[in-house]
């Protein structure tokens, strides 16, 4: 045979991840979270350097604020219940819970995107600029989280994720929860402090 | 990340992975060649294309921002014959600002001595200017320029030199071909009896001959 | 589709005409072109029409570029290896066992390492060509090669950007570390092989973007993209931001992958106490990359939005100083991202060449770690001209402090050299030259950390020469040392010792003559960022240019020599240097697992004391 398979045996296996591989994947996800938290720190830093703690009067705290925060934070819960359901190998239930999380994430995304177009502060002001960039960054990471959840949802449908091979669900929890918590911190420092 | 659950394989012999070396090298070579040509011969190629299709080349937009009290940038260089769009934006949150362009001063006597109210020579005389994207324009005096409007019409006034006056946060685009008037020209805001100008709200434009 | 494929019977398969796949790189280019055209047109003609209807605007170029890079990555193989499996389809990606594997998506760390080595060498030559053009221009006090100063400054910017983000940051980490770190750890794979495969293909996309930036217009800011200058130039800087984004993402993925490889893929018995020095160096560098690269990416994204929306955050009406601070906050750790792997390699190569136990190994590790920790505290010394005197003091202090852990690296190597019967091979020569060069770079660095001298020499060739001594002098020389040192492992062949020494002496003399003179021309008043300068500096600049051309030829000589010997050199055994790190005990061939079974480590790698068994029996059981 002239061609060969580039996947070594360890990564070809469909079976469960070893304890070490599981720790390795969790470590990778934590590096993802650490590295991607840095842009949020920078945004918060620049906001205080450029706009002080100014918050415009009449800023709409609901859209691009409380609604996405609540939607994203609440969205973490069905992912955890999905993982619990996976332990019982109840795949339809897992799917419906992942779907719930995706719907909440979608609500969060739309309410983040909406104020990019309709907002009652001056977009070309120090606060307005940094706030719009923050909304854009949060939307980007929400889209990432949604894509991850969507892939897991489809793989669940194909029967590829089972009790023993539940890393996909856990990865979704990492990405989704990181986005929710990072956005909450950003919202808190930008609009409330 | 590693997600072993999804790594199922199918019969690998369905597709032949020995892709064609000829296609690879020929196409890659062509792409590299085109990149190098477009990098070093950008101007001749675009000139030739413009000549063939009969279009004019658009020069980049000159972003000019007004603030209290200054222009950013405060020095610009244009070449006669270039098509230029000035995108004027008033960054101030409180003040109205205008932008006049010309040479020399036109003094008006007053109790405090003569006050420069505008430039003596108006740069814009006889130039075809297209205005677009008018937003919060307080008033626009076109004087002897030949104006065309795309989009919302600003409030047109007469009297004095060519000058758009923008409300706080306002913006306006002006597109024109740089006339063959080489040398140094000045721009400035003469609002509030010349005080903005005195405070530094001015700049210079160098026009290079064609 | 998957059901179909799985259901094919053997007879069907045999009868079926096997379809030849398109060359992945060509498919990537095609998908990139389609992505750019579709999204660029959509933005510039439908969503965001500008007056006079230009086909490419800043916004449309940005969106089109993003689509093009995604198209390129999918085209080279991410579609089959990452995206389709992610949505539950089976993997259909076979890699021929020949040269083709280097031009398609691969998850084999050896292939990825070689891809990185080729790409970085290619970009080094191209960016070096840009440097040659610059030196050609500076041979004469008048403008004569370039037609305008902007074109010269754009060339300077491209040279700096590519050298920084695709050679300095990547050559040792993405190239040699991707190849050798898993081997040194006694593993057959890196931790996240698919991510590793993806990371390489971002690099050529980034390099091409930066090189093609003049298509959008000039940019005169250099690799630092200083605001508010970046907002006043024509639009070329848009491709600078985008290209750097691709290249830094590549570095970030490599860093995450290698960190996890070092922590989780160590062979049994390879404890932290036995971790090779290069492993420590790469670990330190990866942590720096993981923290600082996302920082600069966000800064550049804000700058890009600043330009295309446009905002005024970093404009004169905003706060340009905030940009500078955000940039140098990354910019100085970047220097250590470049240099720390070089320190680690000195400590890797010298004990092998001297066949002597590494002196004070713990202090070497401490040195690498503390250089990493201090690197975040020194950044403002780039901006002394923008600061109050009182603010300079702490940064001046920490900058001078960092020479202490740097000194550890020197002392460890010197202690190892002490009394060693050193084999004067080409790698040894390059390491010693590299140490000499970095010493010059370091001493002038201490001078520059001193505000008095810093303010005097700000933006002169003195500074330029200083950082070329630290980057070329140490990192590029060590890169060549590593290339010669590991050539027997990469190719199974040995280079020619005479030609190797000739190459080393050639680049050493040319480098020191060219850049040594730059200190003096800088002190005499030669500014950076100028294509035209006073007449009295012309003689010295002419002489610098001559040596610079000689240096360029010298690098070319070394690359040609290495390439030649890669194919035609004398075949050599698997451990010609009698090294003790694990990579010398396997026979790495791309596509085949190196270690089977995995090795078991029983002692450290740097112990050459009397009672250890002599070669060829290694001090560990395989």
TrEMBL record, chain B:
Entry's transmembrane regions: 21-41
InterPro entries, per the entry: Cupredoxin
Record keywords: Membrane, Transmembrane, Transmembrane helix
Domain of life of the organism encoding this protein: Bacteria
Entry keyword annotation includes Transmembrane: yes
Name this polypeptide is given: Blue (type 1) copper domain-containing protein
Automatic annotation (TrEMBL), chain C:
SUPFAM superfamilies: Cytochrome c oxidase subunit I-like
MF-aspect GO terms: cytochrome-c oxidase activity; heme binding
A biological process from GO: aerobic respiration
Keyword Ubl conjugation included in the entry's annotation: no
Membrane topology of the entry: Multi-pass membrane protein
Pfam families recorded: COX1
PROSITE patterns, A to Z: COX1, COX1_CUB
Presence of keyword Transport: yes
The organism's place on the tree of life at top rank: Bacteria
Segments forming domain Cytochrome oxidase subunit I profile: 99-602
Subcellular location, record wording: Membrane
Alphabetized UniProt keyword annotations: Electron transport, Heme, Iron, Membrane, Metal-binding, Respiratory chain, Transmembrane, Transmembrane helix, Transport
Any Gene Ontology CC annotation: membrane
Transmembrane segments: 25-43, 63-83, 111-136, 156-181, 201-219, 239-265, 277-307, 327-346, 358-380, 392-417, 429-449, 469-487, 499-520, 540-560
Its biological purpose: Cytochrome c oxidase is the component of the respiratory chain that catalyzes the reduction of oxygen to water. Subunits 1-3 form the functional core of the enzyme complex. CO I is the catalytic subunit of the enzyme. Electrons originating in cytochrome c are transferred via the copper A center of subunit 2 and heme A of subunit 1 to the bimetallic center formed by heme A3 and copper B.
Family of this protein: Belongs to the heme-copper respiratory oxidase family.
Protein's recorded name: Cytochrome C oxidase subunit I
Source organism per UniProt: Ferroacidibacillus organovorans
């Amino acid at each position: 045979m002239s061609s060969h398979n580039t996947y070594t045996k360890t990564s070809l296996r469909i079976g469960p991840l070893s304890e070490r591989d599981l720790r390795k994947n969790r470590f990778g996800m934590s590096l993802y979270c650490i590295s991607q938290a840095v842009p949020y720190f920078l945004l918060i830093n620049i906001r205080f350097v450029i706009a002080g703690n100014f918050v415009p009067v009449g800023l709409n705290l609901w859209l691009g604020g409380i609604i996405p925060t609540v939607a994203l934070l609440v969205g973490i819960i069905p992912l955890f219940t999905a993982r619990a359901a996976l332990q019982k190998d109840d795949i339809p239930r897992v799917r419906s819970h992942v779907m719930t999380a995706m719907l909440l994430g979608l609500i969060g995304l739309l309410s983040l995107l909406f104020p990019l177009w309709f907002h009652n502060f001056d977009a070309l002001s120090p606060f307005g600029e940094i706030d719009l960039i923050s909304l854009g960054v949060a939307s980007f990471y929400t889209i990432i989280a949604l894509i991850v959840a969507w892939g897991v949802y489809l793989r669940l449908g194909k029967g590829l994720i089972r009790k023993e091979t539940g890393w996909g669900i856990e990865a979704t929890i990492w990405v989704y929860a990181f986005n929710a918590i990072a956005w909450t911190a950003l919202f808190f420092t930008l609009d409330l402090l | 990340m590693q997600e072993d659950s999804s790594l199922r394989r199918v019969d690998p012999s369905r597709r032949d992975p020995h892709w064609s070396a000829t296609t690879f090298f020929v196409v890659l070579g062509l792409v590299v060649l085109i990149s190098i040509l477009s990098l070093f011969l950008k101007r001749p190629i675009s000139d030739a294309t413009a000549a063939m299709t009969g279009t004019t080349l658009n020069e980049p937009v000159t972003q000019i921002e007004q603030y209290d009290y200054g222009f950013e940038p405060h020095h610009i260089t244009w070449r006669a014959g270039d098509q230029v769009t000035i995108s004027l934006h008033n960054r101030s949150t409180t003040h109205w600002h205008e932008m006049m362009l010309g040479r020399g001063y036109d003094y008006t006597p007053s109790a405090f001595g003569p006050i420069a109210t505008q430039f003596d020579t108006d740069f814009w005389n006889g130039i075809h200017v297209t205005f677009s994207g008018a937003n919060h324009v307080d008033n626009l005096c076109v004087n002897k320029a030949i104006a065309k409007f795309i989009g919302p019409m600003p409030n047109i006034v007469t009297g004095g030199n060519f000058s758009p006056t923008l409300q706080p946060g306002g913006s306006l685009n002006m597109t024109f071909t740089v006339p063959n008037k080489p040398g140094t020209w000045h721009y400035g805001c003469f609002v509030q009896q010349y005080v903005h100008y005195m405070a530094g709200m001015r700049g210079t434009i160098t026009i290079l001959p064609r | 589709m998957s059901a179909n494929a799985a259901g094919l019977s053997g007879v069907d398969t045999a009868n079926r005409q096997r379809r030849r796949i398109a060359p992945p790189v060509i498919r990537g280019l095609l998908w990139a072109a389609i992505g750019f055209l579709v999204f660029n047109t959509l933005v510039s003609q439908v969503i965001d029409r500008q007056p006079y209807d230009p086909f490419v605007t800043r916004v449309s170029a940005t969106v089109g570029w993003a689509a093009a890079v995604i198209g390129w990555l999918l085209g080279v193989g991410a579609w089959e290896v990452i995206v389709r499996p992610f949505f539950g389809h089976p993997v259909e990606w076979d890699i021929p066992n020949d040269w083709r594997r280097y031009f398609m998506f691969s998850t084999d760390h050896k292939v990825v390492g070689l891809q990185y080595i080729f790409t970085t060498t290619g970009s080094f030559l191209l960016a070096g060509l840009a440097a040659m053009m610059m030196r050609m221009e500076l041979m004469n006090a008048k403008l004569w090669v370039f037609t305008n100063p902007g074109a010269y400054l754009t060339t300077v910017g491209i040279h700096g950007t590519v050298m920084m983000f695709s050679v300095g940051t990547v050559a040792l980490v993405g190239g040699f570390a991707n190849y050798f770190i898993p081997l040194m750890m006694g593993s057959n794979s890196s931790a996240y092989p698919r991510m590793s495969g993806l990371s390489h293909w971002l690099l050529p996309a980034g390099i091409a973007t930066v090189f093609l930036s003049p298509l959008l217009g000039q940019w005169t800011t250099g690799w630092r993209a200083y605001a508010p200058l970046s907002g006043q130039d024509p639009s070329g800087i848009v491709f600078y931001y985008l290209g750097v984004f691709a290249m830094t993402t590549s570095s970030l993925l490599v860093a995450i992958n290698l960190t996890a490889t070092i922590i989780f893929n160590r062979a049994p018995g390879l404890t932290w106490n036995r971790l090779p020095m290069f492993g420590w160096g790469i670990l330190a560098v990866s942590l720096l990359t993981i923290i600082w690269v996302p920082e600069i990416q966000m800064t550049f994204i804000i700058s890009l939005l600043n330009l295309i929306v446009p905002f005024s955050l970093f404009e004169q009406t905003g706060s340009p100083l905030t940009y500078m601070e955000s940039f140098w906050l990354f910019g100085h750790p970047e220097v250590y991202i470049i240099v720390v792997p070089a320190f680690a390699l000195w400590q890797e190569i010298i004990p092998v060449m001297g066949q002597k136990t590494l002196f004070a190994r713990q202090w070497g590790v401490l040195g690498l770690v503390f250089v990493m920790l201090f690197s975040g505290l020194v950044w403002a010394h780039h901006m002394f001209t923008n600061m109050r005197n009182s603010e300079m003091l702490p940064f001046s202090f920490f900058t001078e402090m960092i020479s202490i852990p740097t000194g550890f690296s020197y002392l460890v190597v010197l202690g190892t050299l002490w009394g060693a019967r050193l084999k004067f091979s080409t790698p040894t020569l390059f390491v010693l030259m590299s140490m000499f060069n970095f010493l010059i770079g370091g001493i002038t660095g201490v001078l520059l950390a001193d505000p008095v001298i810093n303010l005097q020499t700000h933006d002169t060739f003195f500074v330029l020469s200083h950082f070329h001594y630290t980057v070329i002098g140490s990192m590029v020389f060590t890169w060549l040392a590593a290339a010669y040192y590991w050539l027997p492992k990469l190719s199974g062949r040995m280079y020619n010792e005479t030609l190797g020494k000739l190459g080393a002496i050639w680049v050493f003399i040319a480098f020191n003559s060219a850049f040594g003179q730059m200190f003096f021309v800088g002190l005499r008043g030669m500014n950076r960022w100028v294509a035209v300068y006073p007449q009295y500096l012309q003689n010295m600049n002419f002489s610098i240019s001559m040596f610079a051309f000689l240096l360029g030829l010298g690098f070319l000589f070394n690359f040609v020599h290495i390439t030649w010997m890669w194919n035609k050199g004398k075949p050599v055994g698997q451990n010609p240097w009698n090294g003790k790190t694990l990579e010398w005990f396997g026979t790495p061939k791309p596509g085949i697992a190196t270690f089977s079974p995995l090795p078991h480590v029983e002692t450290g790698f740097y112990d050459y004391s009397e009672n250890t068994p002599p070669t060829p029996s290694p001090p560990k059981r395989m």
